[in-house]
Structure formats: C-alpha cells, structure tokens
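re: the backbone from monday

yeah here it is again, tokenized this time
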C-alpha cells in the first residue's frame, strides 16, 4: 500500500492523506483541528445535522431521515448539498455509531457523487486527540470500477471545509 500526503494550504490545521491499495480501492483521510470539542461536533452530525444548513447554507441545504430514527444505526438519511458548484443529494445508511470514540460510519447508497463512479463509498467521522490537540477526522474508503474514475479528493476537501465552518461557529457560540 502506498501512502500519499496532500498538504492543504487554505487552513494550516488540515491535512489529507491518500492511501492507495491495488489502484482501484483507496482511503483518503482528512483531519481538522477543532476547538469546540469532540462531543459537540459528534453530536451535531449524529443528532442535529439539519443545524448544519443554518451554519453552512451555501454548502449544506438539508439532511432528512428517510427511515429509522435520527442518529440510530440502520437509519437511512439523505443530504442535500452543493459541491463543485452543483446541487446534489446523497443517500446514506448509518452503519455504526461509537459514542466513546465519537465515531459515525455512513455507507453511501446513492447520489450524484457516487452513481456510476464508485462501487463502494463509505464515509467515517470520528474525533481523536494528539499532542494535547483535538481533531475531527473524515475517512473516505472507496472502490472505483476502473482507473478513469478520479479519487474523491475534492469531496474530502469539501467535507473538511464545512467541518471547519461548523467548528468555528460552535467555538463562538
């Protein structure tokens, strides 16, 4: 497995790591240093994701529950958002929740971002501490049908950008 580091210059506290295995599967990791606290960020993604649309209205428009209960494993949710200048939607199922590690795993089922592009697309969010600092971490595990499909690096940048906006908003609250 090769590991490629992508520094990000917009915010000095973000980094992206791309791990490539067998060329068609990969993992991208994005870390954002947070000041509002792990529980605060985890809770907004698990329990009140619709609040994100008021914090980042240019990026996230809504997050609706299609089946199940908000934040519960097995629940099916749909996000409405703008990415790369296009309004899109993404349907996911909550695959795993770990309150201790502030972790949520979303298995992407469908949406413009993935349809016809990726065989598998899993987004994991968790928080961790390192050297006395708190970080919110996004992980995208993906499988491409062939090498013509790009790595989802712009989507990782998008996730980290709106995560930073949420943290900035919650830190000021």
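seq for it, each position gets an aa:
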């Amino acid at each position: 497995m090769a590991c490629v580091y992508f520094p990000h210059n917009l915010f000095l506290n973000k980094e992206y790591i791309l791990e490539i295995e067998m060329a068609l599967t990969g993992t991208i990791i994005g870390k954002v240093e947070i000041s509002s606290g792990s529980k605060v960020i985890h809770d907004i993604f698990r329990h009140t994701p619709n609040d994100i649309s008021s914090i980042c209205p240019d990026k996230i428009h809504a997050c609706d529950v299609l089946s199940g209960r908000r934040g519960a494993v097995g629940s099916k949710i749909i996000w409405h958002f703008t990415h790369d200048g296009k309004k899109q939607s993404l349907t996911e199922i909550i695959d795993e929740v770990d309150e201790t590690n502030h972790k949520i795993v979303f298995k992407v089922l469908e949406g413009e971002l993935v349809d016809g592009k990726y065989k598998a697309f899993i987004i994991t969010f968790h928080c961790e501490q390192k050297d006395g600092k708190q970080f919110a971490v996004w992980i995208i595990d993906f499988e491409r049908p062939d090498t013509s499909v790009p790595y989802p690096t712009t989507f990782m940048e998008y996730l980290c950008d709106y995560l930073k906006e949420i943290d900035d908003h919650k830190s000021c609250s």
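The helical segments are 38-46, 52-55, 153-172. The two ends are 42 Å apart (CA to CA).
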